[in-house]
Design a protein that fits this description.
Layout: H1 4-26, H2 31-47, H3 61-72, H4 77-84, H5 88-91, H6 96-102, H7 105-118, H8 127-144, H9 146-161, H10 168-188, H11 192-206, H12 208-242, E1 247-251, H13 256-266, H14 270-274, E2 277-283, H15 286-299, E3 301-302, E4 308-309, E5 322-327, E6 333-340, H16 341-349, H17 353-356, H18 363-384, H19 388-399, E7 403-407, E8 413-417, H20 422-429, H21 431-436, E9 437-442, E10 445-447, E11 459-463, H22 480-511, H23 522-532, H24 537-545, H25 551-559, H26 572-577, E12 590-592, E13 604-609, E14 613-618, H27 623-630, E15 635-636, E16 647-656, H28 661-671, E17 675-684, E18 688-697, H29 700-712, E19 716-721
Parallel strand pairs: 2-6, 12-14
Antiparallel strand pairs: 1-2, 3-5, 4-5, 5-6, 7-8, 9-10, 9-11, 13-14, 13-15, 16-18, 16-19, 17-18
Bound molecules: manganese (II) ion.
Manganese (II) ion is lined by residues 62, 86-87, 155.
């Protein structure tokens, strides 16, 4: 700022803000704590000195404004100080260590948490991925301390309030992010007040025109209907008084963004939304809530199916209230919410209520505990899924909860996200039940596991001790808990499988040398593991089972006189000379099965045959099912990228039985650089003859070219490849 007048103006604003902060803080903090906050302010102002916001005011005004918002929520002293210092690590050379020294490690941790949320590493990733990664970080930071997200939400709210000077494109981007992430998080934490503010500001930034039109329309509508509102309100009040119920009634302003969403998503007109009157009734206790509901339903006819009891069955974020829609005096539907004052405070402030209302009831504690539990679950999940985008996908189910309620056979209620299947339900009851479920009954009828649950169903899970989660289930589940439990189980199971397969393969190899694994001395095994740089025998066996190490080589090395010498096998050179066709099979004999004659490019599968080495079959080989009974050790094998050679394969061709036909076929094949190895006539009549032709090709592409050329011949009626 070059202009001195502006600088003075800015200083004045700064002083005003800090006064406002201190007076708010004095409402609930001790003087010594307020002094600490002032010290944080001086430190922060010093660090940010010379920095200005786009609007022209000194940068420090931003963190103070954020702190004021949090002070209004009665955030504790450390939280306020963290808010004042929240941009210091990111925008100034001050280090986390210095913050810890100057203030406390706790405050340094909080500021660091907020800072981590801000940094997006967008260089190597797509924007979606970068955003996903950012959200994931946010949850990691939140999991450590809920105050981090409160500072972040207040930070975002102030930024949204001061978007003014920014280019429209950037405004829209920030607004989008706010709607996608911060709004839902505020909602999930039950902080509706802050959520509505964020949503309204975002809506305004994204669609300034629509916002302006809506605001005008709402104002106009409000004027037109104020008489009706008054009539309804006084009628309700009178009835409640007659019933000796101590309640307060107020007309309810609908959130502008939710009005817009309703119009947009449900394609309804503004007038039809405004035909809907909304009231709230506040009661002293839960009992009065239900009695007030009785009075209302007695006064106006309720619309069937629109009554919701969130008191008995709170929403996932802890929200409690009775909702009903009744038909009012002029035939207009009236939406009524009935709740206690306590519930209302919770609905407005959510987890922030913990600081805001230091009441002695345990409701706020419960709320806090629930939020923490949710975060812990999320942290568990983020450990089990590797990818940020996937984490976000999972999170979305959790952030936009739409629940259904189902019953266990004993009558307890389980709340589960809409779209959940029986498998989700089983995991929601208990992980062990999920893992062991085999089938289920809904309302006494047997149903498939992928059946989606609906409100009011009674679900009985049938388990079996032998049952295992199935990888296919991942296609049916929606809840994060089910998904991560199945994943974990499969991962563990796969490992166990690999170890036992590895053991079988190694033992078989050793048997052909007339040695038993258990007869090899422990010392020798330990020495061998050391040479192989393997932490344990199970790791080695797992590696063999997964196909990373060949049992033949391991057996050979393990039984060789000098353990250290076996790094260079005597015939290593020979292995190098013959080109590999199957990945990872150095030193092994490969046999391509005669029944299906696989060629490079085919999907293949193999097994160990002591006499033949690895026998490779085509994945679709019919013979394989017969062989499978004898060989349980099937391995997933893969062609080498540069598998070179002539590979035999077999075609079955129906040819018009005419002179010279076979010669035409033969010349066509050789024109395509392929050789015929063998021809045999399988069937022949006057008109058609069917031949089996064995020819050599380089790979699938080559074969496809040959087959295409053959198909073009007028004498060829049908051509198929023989696969077992
Ligand atoms: Mn900030």
């Amino acid at each position: 700022m070059s202009n001195i007048a502006d600088t003075i103006e800015s200083k004045r604003l700064q002083d005003e803000l800090i006064l406002q902060l201190c007076s708010t803080l004095s409402g609930y903090l001790e003087q010594s704590q307020i002094d600490d906050c002032v010290r944080a302010y001086k430190f922060s102002a010093d660090a940010h000195s010379g920095q200005f916001r786009k609007s022209g005011e000194a940068y420090i005004c931003h963190p103070i404004s954020v702190a004021i918002m949090l002070a209004e929520m009665r955030m504790d002293a450390s939280g306020i100080m963290a808010a004042i210092l929240h941009d210091v690590l990111e925008d100034t050379p001050i280090s986390k260590k210095e913050l810890a020294l100057q203030f406390s490690p706790e405050i340094a941790e909080l500021v660091d948490g907020v800072t981590k949320l801000t940094k997006i590493d967008g260089r190597s990733q797509s924007r979606a991925e970068a955003q996903a990664e950012n959200v994931r970080k946010m949850f990691l930071a939140m999991g450590k301390d809920l105050r981090v997200i409160l500072v972040k939400l207040a930070d975002r709210l102030h930024n949204m309030q001061t978007l003014g000077a920014m280019p429209a494109e950037k405004k829209r981007r920030i607004a989008r992010e706010t709607l996608d992430i911060y709004g839902p998080i505020a909602n999930r934490l039950g902080m509706n007040k802050i959520r509505h503010k964020l949503e309204e500001l975002s809506f305004k930034a994204m669609y300034p025109m629509r916002y302006a039109v809506l605001i005008t329309a709402i104002k106009k509508a409000r004027g037109n209907r104020s008489k009706v509102v008054d009539t309804i309100e006084s009628t309700i009040k009178k009835r409640l008084e007659q019933a000796f119920l101590d309640c307060t009634v107020s007309g309810r302003e609908k959130n502008i963004y939710s009005i817009y969403q309703k119009m947009h998503l449900k394609k309804v007109s503004l007038s039809s939304i405004f035909d809907l009157y909304a009231f709230r009734i506040f009661c002293e206790n839960v009992d009065t809530c239900y009695r007030a509901l009785g009075v209302i339903h007695n006064l106006y006819k309720p619309i069937p199916g629109r009554f919701k009891d969130y008191i008995a069955l709170p929403k996932a974020n802890g929200y409690q209230s009775l909702h009903t829609i009744v038909i009012g005096p002029y035939g207009a539907p009236i939406e009524i919410q009935i709740r206690t004052h306590e519930m209302h405070r919770m609905a407005e402030s959510g987890i922030a209520a913990h600081w805001l209302y230091k009441t002695d009831d345990d409701q706020t504690e419960k709320f806090q505990a629930r939020a923490n539990e949710w975060l812990r679950d999320l942290l568990e999940i983020q450990k089990s899924v590797g990818d940020s985008l996937e984490f976000i996908d999972n999170l979305k189910v959790d952030l936009f909860p739409q629940e259904v309620f189902v019953f266990t056979p004993k009558g307890s209620i389980v709340k589960i996200p809409r779209g959940s299947t029986i498998i989700d339900f089983a995991y929601a009851v208990h992980t062990d039940i999920g893992n062991a479920c085999v089938s289920a009954r809904i309302d006494k009828q047997l149903v498939p596991l992928q059946t989606k649950l609906e409100n009011g169903m009674t679900v009985e899970i049938i388990t079996a001790s032998w049952a295992r989660p199935n990888a296919l289930w991942l296609n049916y589940v929606t809840t994060v808990k089910a998904r991560s439990s199945i994943r974990n189980h499969l991962k563990h199971f796969k490992q166990q499988e690999a170890i036992s397969l590895g053991r079988r393969l190694l033992e078989k190899e050793l048997q052909s040398m007339h040695i038993h694994l258990e007869n090899i001395e422990e010392d020798r095994i330990q020495a061998f593991l050391k040479v192989m740089a393997m932490p344990s025998m199970n790791d080695l066996l797992e590696d063999i089972g997964l196909g990373n190490k060949m049992p033949f080589l391991i057996a050979k090395r393990l039984t060789q006189a000098d353990l250290n010498a076996n790094i260079k096998l005597d015939n290593t050179e020979r292995f190098r000379q013959t080109p590999l066709i199957i990945k990872g099979t150095e030193g092994m004999v490969i046999t391509l099965a005669k029944c299906c004659r696989p060629i490079p490019g085919d999907s293949i599968i193999g097994y160990f045959n002591p006499g033949k080495g690895i026998v490779v079959h085509h994945h679709e080989c019919r013979n394989r099912t017969i062989v499978r009974k004898k060989h349980t050790n099937w391995l997933d094998v893969e062609w080498c990228k540069d598998a070179i050679g002539d590979f035999s394969t077999e075609l079955r061709i129906e040819i018009l039985n005419q002179r010279g036909a076979l010669a035409t076929i033969a010349s066509t094949i050789s024109e395509r650089d392929s050789n015929i190895e063998n021809v045999s006539i399988v069937d022949q009549d006057d008109r058609v003859c069917i031949d089996l032709i064995t020819l050599t090709v380089k790979d699938r592409i080559h074969l496809a070219k040959v087959m295409r050329k053959l198909k073009e011949l007028p004498i060829v009626l049908k051509i198929t490849r023989v696969k077992g």
